[in-house]
Amino acid sequence: MVEETAGGVIVHGAKQLATAAPISNETYVSLSATFVRRADPRFVLAFSIPTDSPGLKILCREPVSQWAGSYGHPLATRYDEQDAMLFFDHVLVPWNRIFMLYDSAPLLQRLGSEANFRGWGNLCRIHQRMKVMTAVATLIAEAIGVIEYREVAAKLGEMATYTEMWQHAMDGVEHNAYLAENGLMSLGSMSGMNIYFAQTSARMVELLREIAGSGMIMQPSENDLANPEFRPYLDRYMPGRGVDVEYKSRLFRLAHDLAVSSFGMRQEIYEYWHGGDPNRNRINLLRTYDQADITARIKALIAEPLRS
Ligand SMILES: Cc1cc2nc3c(=O)[nH]c(=O)nc-3n(C[C@H](O)[C@H](O)[C@H](O)COP(=O)(O)OP(=O)(O)OC[C@H]3O[C@@H](n4cnc5c(N)ncnc54)[C@H](O)[C@@H]3O)c2cc1C
């Protein structure tokens, strides 16, 4: 914040990173929980800003969406969330769009306890992602006839375990919801969930790759399937167990977009980072994690006199 005016504050600087900013009406810009206690209060601010505000520049990354046939990239062609850098060149942020300025305490307190329902959508999104990954891996194991192998079934079971754990955690978050003092419903604590998924997501991608084998890479395209010279070979050598070559190819291309393609890898990086640095989040969680009761009991136990 470089200047206060009658109409609002002038903001000058940059925001790394804003997913979907170029296709949004507005972007919410805020310091992360780690940095809100910055010594210089001019850096302590949060606001929402219309995308077409004068002086706001948006730099987009290279798109990961590609059109490679009608089913080559089933997710990338639909769901590329454009990431962007925002540059603020003396942008006026009106007073009525400012949530926090100079002092972080009121906003932090409210976000932590009274308005945390904004995190619910992300929990639902993650649950769907886990279900899709597990289901695609299961269908692939069936399609290539390996689902009865003990280690393959165990890997699928590991994916199902993570997905079930997430469901249990969401049930807990809902069950612990309460009516806050301001009359709004607040969800129960979800403090460890984003960290858990940041570490679990990569494992699920790894399991999907291990189960699927080289078929993740080597599949005929729709042009290959339409090629009369090649088609007999594809029908003979590239079908699955009880499924034809087209079904198998389309299924594997979906898996490819989850765990191999530019889209899939961008998504994987997103899962790791978008909630902030997982290591930093773990440390923040540890600092607020109440162990007073259990540590007192352990100390009491080890202070007991030795029995002769
Ligand atoms: C695809 C994608 C989408 C995103 N979307 C959004 C979004 O919409 N909105 C948003 O606000 N943010 C978004 N983010 C940004 C995300 O919040 C940051 O990536 C995250 O906070 C980590 O910051 P950084 O990328 O600058 O990494 P850095 O903080 O530079 O970390 C780089 C490395 O250094 C280590 N490190 C950093 N600091 C220390 C330290 N003090 N001591 C020891 N090691 C350290 C880290 O552990 C890491 O290994 C997105 C990120 C990605 C990748």
Q: Count the strands? A: 9
Mean pLDDT: 92
Bound small molecules, deduplicated: flavin-adenine dinucleotide
Measured distance between first and last alpha carbons: 68 Å
List low-pLDDT spans. none
Q: Write down the domain tally.
A: 2
Estimated radius of gyration: 25 Å
Q: At the first level of CATH, what is the class of the largest domain? A: Mainly Alpha
Strand content: 15-25%
In the sheet with the most strands, the strands line up as 1-2-6-5
What helical percentage do the residues reach? Answer: 40-55%
Write the CATH fold name of the largest domain.
Butyryl-CoA Dehydrogenase, subunit A, domain 3
CATH superfamily of the largest domain: Butyryl-CoA Dehydrogenase, subunit A, domain 3
Under the CATH scheme, the architecture of the largest domain is Up-down Bundle
How would a crystallographer describe the biggest sheet? 4 strands, antiparallel
Shape annotation: flat
Individual helix count: 11
Structural class: alpha+beta
Describe the overall structure.
- This protein is an alpha+beta fold.
- The chain has two domains: 3-106, Butyryl-CoA Dehydrogenase, subunit A, domain 2 (Beta Barrel); 115-294, Butyryl-CoA Dehydrogenase, subunit A, domain 3.
- 47% of the residues lie in helices and 16% in strands.
- It has a four-stranded antiparallel beta sheet with strand order 1-2-6-5, with no helix packed on it. Strands 3-4-7 form a three-stranded antiparallel beta sheet, with no helix packed on it.
- A hairpin with a 3-residue loop joins strand 1 (3-4) and strand 2 (8-19).
- Helix 3 (120-143) runs antiparallel to helix 8 (245-259), helix 5 (193-212) runs antiparallel to helix 9 and helix 8 packs parallel to helix 9 (262-273).
- The longest helix has 26 residues, at 150-175.
- The N and C termini lie far apart (68 Å).
- The mean pLDDT is 92.
- The structure holds flavin-adenine dinucleotide.
